[in-house]
Amino acid sequence: MRRNRGLWTIPLALTLGAAAPAPEPAASAIRVDQIGYETHGPKTAILATPTEAPQDWQLLDTAGRTVAHGTTEPFGVDPGSGERVARIRFDSVTRPGRYRLAVGSARSQPFAILDRPYADAATAAMSFFYQQRSGVPILARYVPRPDLARAAGHPHERVTCFHGRDQRGVTWPGCDYSLDTTGGWYDAGDQGKYVVNGGLSAWTLLDLHERLAALGDANAFADGRLALPENGNGNDDLLDEAKVEVRFLLAMQIPAGRSLTVAFTTDRGAPARDFRTIDAGGLVHSKVADVAWTPLPTAPAADPMPRFLYPPTTAATLNMVAVAAQAARIWRERDPAFVAAALAAATRGWAAATRVPDLYASSDFTGSGGYGDRTVSDERFWAAAQLFVTTGDPAYAQVITTSPYLVDDGVDLSWGSTALAGMMTLATTPNRLPAATEAAIRAQLLRLADRLLAERARSGYQLPMAGRKYVWGSNATLLNRAMLLGVAWQISHRPAYRAAMIDVADYVFGRNALDRSYVTGFGSRPMRHPHHRFWAQAADPRFPAPPPGVLSGGPNDGAGTADAQLKGCIGQTCWRDDWQAFTVNEVAINWNAPLVWVTAFLDATRGVPPAKG
Ligand code: 9MR
Q1: 425: domain range?
Q2: Would residue 408 show up in a list of annotated catalytic residues for this protein?
Q3: Which among 73, 577, 578, 603 is annotated as catalytic?
Q4: Which residues form ligand 1's pocket by a CB distance below 6 Å?
Q5: Which pLDDT tens digit goes with each residue over 326-369?
Q6: What pairing do the DSSP bridges indicate for beta strands 66-71 and 106-107?
Q7: How far is CA 513 from the centre of its chain?
């Protein structure tokens, strides 16, 4: 069966002109940012070496001439990878060009020194969102290669609630309505559309928009900068893209007056129970997704599975509220009708989440991810922050000023931990909080960023994440930490924060234990075979390879237990470039969004001298 498929698909791919991929260069012991370093920015490479003593290094130009040299700074064993490492610092080289580093007979991958290393990556990473759009055809003129064009997936997504039995045999009753949820972005390698993850991703892009404006770079994504069907409409392209998702979030809200039977006890190691019929108006469904997993490849337009709305949750509701409230200030002058709809949805959602504060997801459905989250105080804080900044209503200020998140310890922003998204907005977006509260929020963010700098000092790879804990989507964990550092830099202009952001960018583009650029199309050893149902050439040559600018989820130390090939891996080494390895090599909107944020932020703030010390 498999062999048959191979026999007739390979010649077809050849007639379509698919180029055989260039062989991958071997991994080097000298790890560099494979796209390059800013002309006047910090420049660090990492050497993995069993040798404890300092070693000589040379920086070679394209003719092989030594243009700079020095000695490595031994670090010891890096806890995040298990490797013994040493640092190579070449901040003082400011001549633009292409280089390699050499230590003994080892050579790094080639890299550049240039003024704007991150600009192209930011643009390519934004294109991911267009290409993940649901409900519309992906047109050849807006994608980097013609084979990436595709027919619209799920173009008429009017869906009703899941009804029938879940995996544990519990019968869910469904509902007596349907919602038109056409549009939005597919989440990842699957074609589910999830509110909590879509919301955080939209917030991230919208936050970037607000921040670029505050940094004086409001035109970074002006109309025409991205390849989009909305080109020429006079609106900012990043906002055009984000609006696709905000509209979807609004469409997931249950109309007033609807009642629904939902389970209040879920994910307690037993079948869902405690079904009650409630007034569900204003709550937000958690997801629209296939009723069973589809195989790879499955083009969105060819998805054969029935799709349903899955039960509303308090987390999804507050998540929509946060983003709708944020949208209501961003589009205030630009689109008053959209603002009115967003603000009305946010207000209704807030009331519904107050009325139903404890409705959690069930992970007993198959065909889609759970995104289950039983702590919603952070979503409530985030939603209150966005509503307050937009409306100034003191009722929301009350929620903020009494919240533990003002002094909470967490440094990680994620789909399930959203308090920092509230903090970041409150710290830098003009609002009517008392000056002392605002000062306290800023001080808290600086404290958290300092904690990241302390971790960086303990990391052999000089990352603001020490230790061997690399979770599912660890690349985004790092990039989300880089966002916190970026906000700390915006508040304080302390160069060390921005330098630590660059460390994260360097890591993602190749300065890591696998000598791997985790972004397709960038660097000489990029990820090539993501887990994705359409960019599935590795699974079936009739499907396209991924476009450039797509971020792998990255090392996942949990993968070592289930994946024989990763057995015994440590932190950064728990990854492989395999389309089937979905726990390490999937792609997702909440991972590409902070990639856009960090690369665009670095590009907008270029020219800052390296940190001392
Ligand atoms: O990003 C999610 C990660 O934090 C979870 O540990 C993991 C398992 O529940 O799920 C990840 O999200 C996936 C989602 O459930 C379905 N679409 C693909 C997402 C990325 O792998």
Answers
A1: 119-366+376-509+590-604
A2: no
A3: 577
A4: 187-188, 190, 192, 369-371, 472-473, 586, 588
A5: 999 999 999 999 999 999 999 999 999 999 999 999 999 999 99
A6: unpaired
A7: 21
